[in-house]
Write a structure and sequence with these properties.
Order of helices and strands: EHEEEEHEEEHHEHEEHHHHHEEEEHHH
Number of helices: 13
Radius of gyration: 23 Å
Length: 389
């Protein structure tokens, strides 16, 4: 960022033009801004360079196995909820080159690292559930400071470099979607200052206004806020922001039952796994859209003349038949066992590994499941069957 001394203003109000200035400043500082945009009938994440690229006036309708992009009631820029993309595709890309090897003329060989310099991204519109998801991935990839003294923890240096280079402009939700349940997971809709971000926006629209309450968090955020055309926050602004967040909290489309981790541990042999296994297509959609899933595989390729070889790491899924393949075949052949593995890991055993749930309540897995399987409903069904025994 600029070398100017930041003031210590923790919040301020900017208008729509001020948001455009913010994007321009960040681009000028060398960042590639990634934010929501309309493409292929959905609101996805992609590179933007001005407010004009944002999905003004669009919102979404989501339910189990259903997503529709529809005109909104106003020209809100962030009137939608989360779409099929998550920020992990930029921090933990779907495909990464691990190394390349090449034979030399003298009969030897050379090995080159596939790691490229980290692209400085600025993420615009990161919601609380996705901020928590980034924190979960930080833990998975060895960035949690609490783990630095543990010799068994390996830090993924590529992820660490991309994470350090990222500027995060978060967003307090003013609307919940049909499959959202972050409130019951304590991961939203408010962006808490204990999370890792630089600025947080709350969109204030209606009654002839279109403003954003901006909160700074950390040195980069304060420095950036000091460069924006803004005015002080008034009582009416703060009340409007609180009302927007409260509206989102009250409008959740789903709710996770309490104590789900212990429930699943007690019910590994529940007959309900057979029922959900009959519906599950093992298509991997839920894991591909999930912002915390991190499973991967490696592929080795060699040129036809044997002169070059390359190893690539790619996203994988515990729903793939080959994921647990060892000598003798796959260890999870049936859909029931693969769904059980995913759900119990996500909601239960993740606590044992990483100290928190692997689910942040974003609802993507419900929306993008072709048959509309809803993990909040499955948890309730398992509880109900337990009480009937």
């Amino acid at each position: 960022m600029s070398g100017e001394e930041p003031n210590q203003t923790e919040n301020a109000v900017i208008d729509r033009d001020g948001l455009d200035v913010l994007i321009g400043l960040v681009v000028g500082d060398g960042y590639r801004v990634i934010g929501p945009k309309v493409a292929d009938g959905a609101i996805i994440l992609g590179e933007i360079d001005s407010v004009r690229a944002l999905p003004a006036g669009w919102t979404d309708e989501q339910s189990g196995g259903r997503y529709r992009l529809v005109p909104g009631p106003n020209q809100a820029l962030f009137g939608h909820t989360v779409g099929p993309y998550s920020w992990k595709r930029y921090l933990n890309p779907p495909e990464q080159t691990v190394w390349r090897g090449r034979r030399t003329d003298d009969g030897g060989f050379t090995i080159e690292s596939g790691k490229a310099p980290a692209t400085p991204y600025a993420f615009l519109g990161v919601r609380a559930c996705d901020l928590h998801a980034i924190a979960r991935q930080d833990k998975v990839f060895g960035l949690d400071p609490a783990d630095h003294d543990r010799p068994e923890i390996h830090t993924d240096t590529g992820y660490a470099a991309r994470r350090a280079a990222a500027l995060i402009i978060a967003l307090n939700c003013g609307r919940a979607g049909g499959t959202c349940f972050c409130a019951s997971m304590n991961t939203g809709p408010r962006v808490e200052p204990t999370l890792s971000y630089d600025l947080a926006l709350t969109e204030l629209i209606g009654d002839g206004r279109h403003d954003f309450l901006v909160e700074a968090n950390g040195p980069r955020g304060h420095a950036l806020l000091a460069r924006l055309p803004s005015r002080p926050v008034e009582v009416a602004d703060a009340k409007a922001a609180e009302a927007a967040i409260a509206r989102a909290a009250a409008g959740m489309g789903r709710e996770m039952i309490p104590d789900v981790a212990a429930l699943l541990r007690r019910n590994l042999d529940s007959r309900h796994w057979d029922e959900v296994g009959q519906r599950c297509l093992t298509c991997t959609n839920c894991t591909m859209v999930c912002p915390t899933c991190f499973c991967s595989t490696v592929e080795d390729t060699t040129s036809l003349d044997g002169g070059e070889a390359e190893r690539t790491r790619k996203w994988d899924s515990c729903f793939s038949l080959d994921f647990t393949y060892i000598h003798g075949g796959s260890q999870r052949r049936e859909a029931r066992s693969r769904y059980r593995q995913w759900m119990t890991h996500k909601l239960s055993s993740w606590h044992d590994q990483f100290g928190a749930s692997g689910c942040t309540g974003c609802g993507r897995c419900i929306t993008w499941c072709p048959v509309g399987i809803d993990l909040t409903a499955e948890a309730r069904a398992i509880r109900d069957k337990e009480t009937q025994r």
